[in-house]
Amino acid sequence: MHRFWGWLIVNLVLCLISFIAYSSQIFIIWPWYGNALSVELLTLLLPFNFLVGMLLWNYFLCVNTDPGQVPDKWRPDTHTDGFEVNKLTRQPRYCRTCESYKPPRAHHCRQCNRCVLRMDHHCPWINNCVGHFNYGHFIRFLFFVDVACSYHIAMVSYRVMDANRSPTAWNWLSSTELIFIILNYVACVPVLLAVGGFSLLHFHSLLGNTTTIERWEKDKAATMVRYGRIQSLKFPYNLGNRRNIESVLGTNFWLWCCPTRTLGNGLKYELNAVDGEPLESWPPKDPDHSHYEDPVAGFQLPDTPWTFENGSFNPDLQPSNSAIRQNQNQAKRRRKANPASGTSDLPPYHPDYQSPNEMDAPDDSGSSDSGSGLFNSSNGTTRVRRGSEGYEVKLEDRNLMLRKYLESVGETPGRYHRYIPMPDSESEDEVEGA
Q1: Primary place of residence (predicted)?
Q2: What is the count of structural domains for the chain?
Q3: Which residues carry out catalysis?
């Protein structure tokens, strides 16, 4: 997301909070009490403004607090417990984009273009990632949104109930009050329902010391356990409800609702280890992927993604750039307007495709050695669509396949053994009688 749109969303959220918080007090509650200060009015509004203030404070911290990033040249200590491994290689996780190792529970964010410590998710409403150092602020923000919206709806509803006590009571409501009552309900009720459901999800994750990404990993592990692929295993970061909350909100119960700095540095986390029990690697390995690796040497990544099916490197295969893709249509139009000799309109994977050299040279043997199936451009490289995956299959035409077959059975290519039936010969008696 562009930086401008991110900050625009943040300002829209602030406008929504301000409208719900202050329009109800100015246009609904204040006229209700006769536009005069009183003890009852202060008793009603002071708790509400305290909740709004805590909401805005934690929202400010969510937006401006760095969730944490991996220090330069950080390397995991593989001699101690607590480092995560890659699902395939079973080695310490490595980010190819950042070109650095990933600490436990860290993941790469495409929006922030960096690895975030204990990444939960990227939230567009705060224009920031929710990570190690601002996850506590995010939890408090959700809590105060739920409490403040509930207090707001109760306060406005009490005003409506008071005006509805007698049949003529609605005459005391001005048109301005009635309009703002409707607008506050329309704005506040959807926010409470949406944020409330989202809050329940994160409060449950907080009790289990689980991030959003780790919840997906736990679902995958539960599926493998249900189908009998792996044995049941426990989540290594679940320390118990009380200790899980303390790891995010602090050890002092009375300060859980106050903004405090998260404990630790985000590079190592306490594990739920029991003496004498080995720790299982997380995330768990899917045994169905074992046929992709050597049982002795283990899984080994190729040196380059551009390989033939037999693992050899194709030096003529080069990824294309955006300029080639943008000018592709123009090049086709130029070729049609000025046809040149030695060019083919067929794609390189077509069975009847011929390379420029084969089109210029006479075809004596009746076979074309265009088995490579590569499209040679003017600079001698092959254009390949960016984002191609997997292995390249070396294409062969039918003539080359026939030549290989004849060589495999011991025949000479170009010499065909055909059965030509002989005409029926006349009998010897007929010849002698003649």
Answers
A1: endoplasmic reticulum
A2: 2
A3: 123
Helical segments of 25-120, H only: 30-32, 39-64
Q: Is 426 domain-assigned?
A: no
Neighbouring-strand partners of residue 130: 121
Within 164-303, where are the H helices? 175-207, 212-226, 241-249
CA neighbours closer than 13 Å in the CB half-sphere of residue 165? 5
**Which pLDDT value is given to residue 389?**
47
Clarify whether residues 231 and 334 are in a common domain. no
Structural domain for 397, as ranges = 317-408
Same domain for 245 and 152, yes or no, is: yes
Residue environment code for 131-150, b if the CB has 16+ CB neighbours within 10 A, otherwise e: bbbbbbbbbbbbbbbbbbbe
**Angle at CA of residue 390, ends 384 and 395, nearest 5°:** 65
Question: Which residue's entry shows tokens 């003017």?
Answer: 378
CA 150 to chain centre: 34
For the chain, what's the residue count? 434
Judge whether 295 lies within some domain: no
Distances (CA, A) of 324 to 33, 162, 328: 71, 72, 6
- Statement to judge: residues 81 and 200 lie in one domain: yes
- Bridge-partner residues for 128, per DSSP? 123
Host H or E run for residue 400: helix 398-408
Regarding beta strands 114-116 and 121-123, do their DSSP bridges make them parallel or antiparallel, or are they unpaired?
unpaired
- pLDDT at position 232 is 80
pLDDT lower than 50: segments of the chain: 290-292, 295, 308-310, 313, 315, 318-319, 363-391, 431, 434
Distance CA 59, CA 19 (A): 16
User: Which of 43, 257, 299 shows the shortest CA–CA distance to 141?
Assistant: 257
CB atoms within 10 A of CB 245: 20
Burial class, 38, CB count within 10 angstroms (exposed 0-12 / middle 13-18 / buried 19+):
exposed
- Whether residue 312 is contained in a domain is answered as no
Same structural domain, 162 and 34: yes
Nearest residue to 192 (alpha-carbon basis) of 11, 20, 25: 20
Position 374 scores a pLDDT of: 41
* Structure token digits, residue 361: 């040279």
Q: Are residues 94 and 189 in the same domain?
A: yes
pLDDT in tens, 47-63: 999 999 999 999 999 99
